[in-house]
Design a protein that fits this description.
Length: 201
């Protein structure tokens, strides 16, 4: 039986079961006792939202390294990004077309500037509040990327002059955070149809 766990990872929690650096971050061991679970793609300790876990290696590989015949069927990762400043059409166009980072050009992304009321979830208070400057407004972007460069979203928005204040992952490969509360998780059984969508079977 194949399944995947959808977890709303809190701010300040590592995407691993051990804290090898002995810092102040929590770990997945604070939330899960099932030692067979493996993380499907990482999420920085200072980022929040959807983290997938599974004990099925085939599912893990299918999501992180889609089979060749599915390479053209883009499996994006969508983030809700709170940025400092008000995005201009030019800045949004840059993000959409791709930006040149130190490790190369990013692929074109999907970007929307959304009002708080238009976000797909109710934003919860963060344990460590974002930095705020009274003279500088903030805004929310919904940003979908199709690759996984290190800290890519933060670097992309900073590159166009919109420093990232808060990053919440909303979806991965068709799985969405939904209304999961912070620190909550749900186990989803993958039926034959969903496995085929992932290129399994």
């Amino acid at each position: 039986m194949s399944d995947v766990v959808l977890f709303n990872k809190p701010y300040g929690v590592l995407s691993q079961f051990r804290n090898d650096d002995n810092n102040d971050f929590g770990t997945l061991a604070d939330f899960f006792t099932d030692k067979s679970l493996r993380v499907v793609g990482r999420l920085d300790a200072t980022s929040e939202g959807l983290l997938l876990l599974t004990s099925d290696g085939r599912v893990n590989r299918a999501i992180t390294q889609p089979p060749k015949h599915l390479k053209d069927r883009k499996q994006g990762k969508t983030y809700l990004v709170q940025v400092e400043g008000t995005p201009t059409p030019e800045q949004l166009a840059q993000l959409t077309q791709g930006v040149l980072l130190k490790d190369g050009m990013t692929l074109p992304a999907l970007v929307q500037h959304l009002e708080v009321d238009d976000l797909p979830l109710a934003i919860w208070p963060r344990t460590s509040p974002i930095r705020e400057r009274k003279s500088v407004p903030t805004a929310w972007l919904m940003l979908t990327i199709y690759e996984g460069k290190n800290r890519q979203v933060r670097r992309m928005t900073a590159h166009v002059g919109l420093p990232c204040l808060r990053l919440i992952r909303w979806s991965v490969a068709g799985f969405e955070l939904g209304n999961l509360g912070v620190g909550e998780f749900v186990r989803v059984h993958l039926n034959e149809g969903r496995l085929k969508q992932l290129g399994i079977g």
